[in-house]
């Protein structure tokens, strides 16, 4: 059985060019240590969000979070896709991430989703620095989340995040997911997405 420590080493990205070490070692775990996130841990994560860049400094991001063993946690679990429910209960901490759709002037904030993404990038690097893994999930029923959490008009839940300190046991997830955890990480080459001078 692959140990968690070996899994973390195996998941360090094999870069074509040298990048910041925290970016190399970041991956999206489905197993986590039993260690709980403290209030200070949570505050540090959201402070990294607070200082993220945003268009016109509008800071449109909004979060709902909960610790395992609470009613809020169970409610977030209800909003996840069936696939994500198979493993997300291993995380000691869950979040829903959303954004404010309009500006203060009432016009559409076209960049709000972009800004939410930037804030989650900040949080991801901060979490990695703290030994915390984040698994961002597209598989969330935003309509159910809006209903369960009474999300106000003008806001949109976009994604969910499972968070916890690296660790845990691979046997805590089904066999098909264990294989995914062990699989080699791959990325498309830069030439497929970065074009100099003209779109190719």
From TrEMBL:
Q: What does the UniProt keyword field contain? A: Oxidoreductase
According to UniProt, the name of this protein is: Nitroreductase
Q: Where is the Nitroreductase domain?
A: 23-69, 81-164
Gene Ontology MF terms: oxidoreductase activity
Organism this protein belongs to:
Maribacter algicola
State the family it belongs to. Belongs to the nitroreductase family.
Question: Pfam families given for it?
Answer: Nitroreductase
């Amino acid at each position: 059985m692959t140990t968690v420590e070996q899994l973390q080493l195996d998941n360090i990205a094999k870069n074509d060019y040298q990048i910041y070490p925290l970016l190399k070692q970041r991956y999206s775990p489905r197993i986590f240590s039993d260690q709980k996130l403290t209030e200070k841990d949570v505050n540090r994560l959201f402070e990294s969000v607070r200082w993220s860049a945003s268009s016109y400094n509008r800071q449109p991001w909004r979060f709902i979070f909960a610790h395992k063993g609470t009613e809020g946690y169970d409610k977030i679990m209800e909003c996840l896709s069936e696939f994500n429910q198979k493993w997300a209960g291993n995380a000691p901490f869950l979040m829903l991430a959303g954004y404010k759709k309009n500006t203060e002037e009432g016009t559409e904030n076209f960049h709000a989703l972009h800004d939410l993404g930037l804030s989650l990038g900040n949080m991801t690097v901060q979490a990695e620095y703290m030994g915390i893994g984040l698994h961002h999930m597209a598989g969330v029923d935003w309509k159910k989340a809006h209903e369960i959490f009474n999300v106000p008009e003008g806001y949109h839940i976009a994604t969910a995040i499972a968070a916890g300190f690296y660790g845990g046991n691979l046997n805590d997830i089904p066999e098909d997911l264990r294989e995914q955890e062990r699989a080699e990480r791959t990325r498309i080459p830069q030439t497929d997405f970065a074009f100099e001078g003209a779109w190719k």
